[in-house]
Amino acid sequence: MTNMLKYICFLMLACFAFSASGQNSQFSQYYTSSLVLNPSFAGIPPDLQVSLNHKRQFQTSGISNELSQFSILYPFVSSGFNARQFGGIGLTAFSESIGDNFFKNNGFMVSTAYNLRLGDFSPDYVIFGLQGGYFNESINFGNLQWGSQYTPYLVSGFDPNAADPSAQFNDMVHYPVFNAGLTYYFNPARTYRLYKYSAFSGFSFKNLNRPNTSFMGGEVARKPMFMTYHGGMEFSISHKLRWSPNGIFYYSTDNRYQFNMGSYVSYSFSDNRSLKANNLYLTFGVWYRLRDSFIFTTGFQNNNLQMAFSYDLNKAYLFTEPNESLVPSFEISLTYTLGKDKKGGSSSNPLF
User: Fold this and answer.
1) pLDDT over 80 (residue 324)
2) Which of 188, 259, 185, 254 lies closest to 228, judged by CA?
3) What's the burial of 90, exposed, middle or buried (CB within 10 Å: 0-12/13-18/19+)?
4) In Å, what is the CA distance from 187 to each residue of 101, 233, 352?
5) Residues 352, 301: Cα–Cα separation, whole Å
6) CA end-to-end distance (rounded Å), the chain
7) pTM of the shown model
């Protein structure tokens, strides 16, 4: 395990050497929207789980951007006396709206994962995940104003009845996506009586099929491939207090990259070390998206239910005069685990 810890630290430190440029639509609560981050997360929850994320950003003009996902995960568990989880399957519905439905992106994804244990009594395993989905993107070209519609003969300078080139564009495109991922997890059950920490490290690869997303018939605009590295650890400071440093690095084949680093602190209000039912945990976290924004998160978990709220504050908005394109966003997440026994169990993701 010592070598694995060195590997995690090396990758996280290497990511600090890169600067971030460009940004894709993404949730601020990375691990509660786990199947969007990495399909191998389908093999982590030990019980049936339902999760929902909704993120909204308001512009000063009243226009809003929204991002949502809904996921259901079901574990694969072997039968018999020595029952073990050997994988899982997940279904995700995704919706994105920019500029009050000017641009929309909707779709669904099916994820499946296989867990490879590194030994009969080993506290770690590797999870392999595959994901396939189908998306459609649409643009409301009717709400655009074109240069050919401007004229010097009108006081307003704009003639909405003039011809425009929108007829050469398709209003909607459809395409399939194929993704893959893997995650290494040490001590996922968080048995901190035996080990003082848990650790995870993983990669995901999106748009492996490079789908064509061009709105012009006969033209080709391939979606770039997208690689993500995520890693972190959780330390048991005491039976009540846990600390989890994390890092996420994104890179796409069109040379865009981004690095996020953050940390969570979780506090339990229970004195029961065996993690009985109704053990309330409060979690606070801060993330920094390099050269872009700060993300503040708070949440709670009480046995089957967990809820979190995050506030995404753009750095330029924080330190300079507010700008219409630099408005904070808000995100809320709900996760409910069905069938979780009264003594608790392994967590569904690195945050809870």
Assistant:
1) no
2) 259
3) buried
4) 44, 10, 14
5) 7
6) 23
7) 0.80
